[in-house]
Q: What sequence folds into this?
């Protein structure tokens, strides 16, 4: 796993990436839609997972996944044992009589996992899919929210 936001490992929302690194030698164009995280060679189909933004905004974290071309019905989410998993299932409708000269985009099945720390409230996770962007909101628990300093009276 690697930390996306900062070095505070216990209180940080993370992307779970099991022991793989982005290939530096792959085809430039296959990175336009998906991060190549599994080190595989380009074979005309995209590998890896969708580009993701994670933003900490006061009392919540926002996760945005770029999913152009996918429909809401193809995407599912599940939370279990501190892991939020986002999946997409796409039927293989590739036409065998088509010979691609260049193929820079396509839809594929994927699964992306996020480690949700104890300071966040998994029971209040919400999601919205609009214009190819899946926006997930994970609120912080009340005790994890930053509080304004209070004046302490001295007796």
A:
């Amino acid at each position: 796993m690697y930390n996306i936001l900062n070095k505070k490992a216990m209180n940080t929302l993370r992307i779970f990436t099991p022991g793989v690194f982005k290939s530096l030698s792959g085809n430039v164009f296959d990175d336009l839609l998906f991060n190549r995280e599994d080190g595989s060679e380009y074979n005309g189909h995209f590998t890896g997972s969708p580009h993701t933004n994670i933003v900490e905004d006061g009392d919540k974290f926002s996760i945005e996944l770029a999913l152009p071309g996918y429909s809401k019905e193809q995407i599912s989410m599940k939370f279990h044992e501190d892991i939020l998993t986002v999946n997409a299932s796409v039927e293989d409708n590739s036409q065998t009589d088509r010979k691609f000269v260049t193929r820079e985009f396509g839809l594929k099945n994927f699964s992306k996992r996020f480690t949700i720390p104890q300071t966040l409230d998994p029971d209040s996770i919400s999601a919205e899919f609009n214009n190819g962007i899946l926006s997930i909101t994970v609120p912080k628990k009340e005790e994890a929210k930053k509080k304004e300093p209070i004046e302490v009276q001295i007796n």
